[in-house]
Amino acid sequence: MRKKILVVCSTLVVFFSLTTLAISQISRKVKDDLYSQIELFSYALTTVQSDYVEEIPPKELIYGSLKGMLSTLDPHSQFLTPEEYKELKTETQGKFGGLGIEISMKDGLLTIITPIEDTPAWNSGIKAGDRIVKIEGEVTRDITLSEAVKKLRGKPGTEVNITILREEEFELKEIKIIREIIRIQDVKHVQILNEKIGYIRLTEFREDSAKEFRKALDQLGEEGAESLIVDLRNNPGGLLNVAIRISEEFLPEGKTIVSTKGRRIMQNSISKSRNTDHIVDWPMVILINEGSASGSEILAGAVKDNNRGIVLGTKSFGKGSVQSVIPMPDGSGLRLTTSKYFTPSGTSIHGTGITPDIVVKRIYPPEKEKTEEEKKSKEIFDNIEDKDLKENEELKISKRAEEVRERLLNDNQVQAAMSVLKGIKVYKNFDAPVEMVEEKEVIIHK
Q1: Does the pTM exceed 0.70?
Q2: Bridge partners, 114 (sequence order)
Q3: Is 86 an active-site residue?
Q4: Who is most buried in 43, 135, 155, 384, counting CB within 10 A?
Q5: The domain that contains 199 carries what CATH number?
Q6: Which tens digits make up the pLDDT trace of 424-435?
Q7: Which residue in 146, 227, 273, 294 is the catalytic one?
Q8: What is the CB neighbour count within 10 angstroms for residue 197?
């Protein structure tokens, strides 16, 4: 018993010395209250250590307490063990088997922000907003975000079974997904649609995204684009500095892009455009939906609040908090929410999202049921095409581009964006006094 008490006491000495260092930075009133609460904590710790039915290592108790403390703050704050902290620092460099989804906690439920395009999750039919209620038959009611990520990851080629709740359909769906190495193409489907309208799909804000986005703009310029659609639907975000750099392509020097605000002055900042040349001044529409989060919301908010373009689609996810990772002396770490993002007009993104200037819900046309004869005919010609495509890589790329173009031209939100840009072009060519036109928000319901 004496040995166990000594172990606990030595653990508490280290704990209190670190706590005292942190407490020295806060006010006297808060200090007094915190010291009294720490006394309560130490009493509970020693009681558990001496009276619990099984002997528990002191570090396990302390780590459990820290995990509990951080989990009460918000879904994105968490305590990281040394192993978890090491994994966090190295995971962007390594490869792992995943599903291709971005997840968060929303209303206390494990929620899919978005499936990433051309990944197992995307191909399985998972949608933004789906709630994961079971992973391998285990209910996710009390699971943390980090625990969920661990369960969903695994070796490439292995299988994971999840149960989702799709609220709009009021039903549970069981989905079986095979994990793969997730490779993401940030900038894709760069092309001219109709009437010199350029299109760029941006799937995420990663290290090279700004450079690739700039190349895409140059390509469209060379091909004669006069207006632009930037598709941020199902873009979960990424690196803040990259979102800022892409926003600078459209905003002249001095225009505010985003601000961050926290409790401490050092956590407050305002990011403004530093672009003094090559401003892209084409009329522009940004497409967003409920799967657009974080960096996507920063770009859309900057364009909207600076009256630089039109934001069209449905309300975005509302992920606008900033997490800082703080190392602890023993190799563990704290992932702590320290500030929140605000648009140039001062609107908080977190929990609110970006409301489009023009609301257009995505409508998926019903698939026509094919007859047995049509199915057989399709199978024969698909086999012939597959053989030709294997023998001709250029033909394969061309066919893929044609399929993407056809899909975009049949996308009702892209159609609405094109209509807006055509309207702007007509208006610019219309020789009428500006003061005669009443400005108002247009809501399109389909």
Answers
A1: yes
A2: 102
A3: no
A4: 135
A5: 3.90.226.10
A6: 988 877 654 444
A7: 294
A8: 23
